[in-house]
Amino acid sequence: MRFNSIIYSHYEKEGRILPWRENTEPWGVLVSEFMLQQTQVSRVESYWKSWMEKWPTPACLDKASLEEVLEGWSGLGYNRRALYLKGCAGIITDNFGGEVPKTQAELLRLPGIGPYCAGAICCFAYNYPAVFIETNIRSVMLHFFFPGQEGVKDKEIMPLLEKHMDRKNPRKWYWALMDYGGVLKKHAINPSRRSAHYTRQSRFRGSLRQIRGSLIRSLVHEGPAAPEDLRERLDVEANKEEFYRALIALEKESIVAEKNGVYRIKNS
After folding, report:
1. In whole angstroms, what is the distance from residue 75 CA to residue 94 CA?
2. What range does the domain containing 62 cover?
3. In the predicted model, what is the mean pLDDT of residues 104-121?
4. Which residues are part of the catalytic machinery?
5. Cα-to-chain-centroid distance, residue 226
6. CATH number at residue 120
7. Contacts of 36 (CB under 8 A, 6+ apart)
8. Tens-digit pLDDT profile for residues 64-111
9. Residue ending a domain, choose from 89, 106, 126
């Protein structure tokens, strides 16, 4: 098919060489999918390599303290992903003999894994022809099959993904789609903006997300502290209300814990 030929032709010439593509061991693939969520590939590469050196198996990560894990994650943002990844490691170690599950149904039961992530892990780790969609894939499909059309829903795109799937090598096919989509966004208005599911990413500076990240960095690198001291240590501005919103949210998510008025990273 002409569409497939165009995508593969681009991939053969300009396909990206990435460490989790060179080594498709399932645990490494799972780690990469967590790290790549809402984070640029260029930022993830060094983190992925460091992470896999420290924790090459789920059992290794399961044994690590949450403080160690958050320190290894520091700078990637969305720290909740690190907590979920550690949770996955424990379940995989205890319930699956240390082997990453091979089915989407089993993967969906793990913390932090949704339909896209489950499909991607099945495909990239096990070369299974799962049908899944993310922003770069969506961009490609909108560009080729819905030119100029606004408000396109993913349910309109999914049958086309199924139809054009390379079932002999779905892993390579999805790599090629993603790489083509990444180039599209560099040379034209992002086609994904015409998706019914498109939303602009909220600002980071001054956001609750930035305050949360600063709180975690402080507790990891400077140790436990009472709230008033902790607020003074932050490397971002936060009024009292914003500070406590962030702190309470982290406590509810079991990332931090309070004892005798002092907050610290929660023990595993």
Report:
1. 29
2. 25-126
3. 98
4. 33
5. 32
6. 1.10.340.30
7. 44
8. 999 999 999 998 988 999 999 999 999 999 999 999 999 999 999 999
9. 126
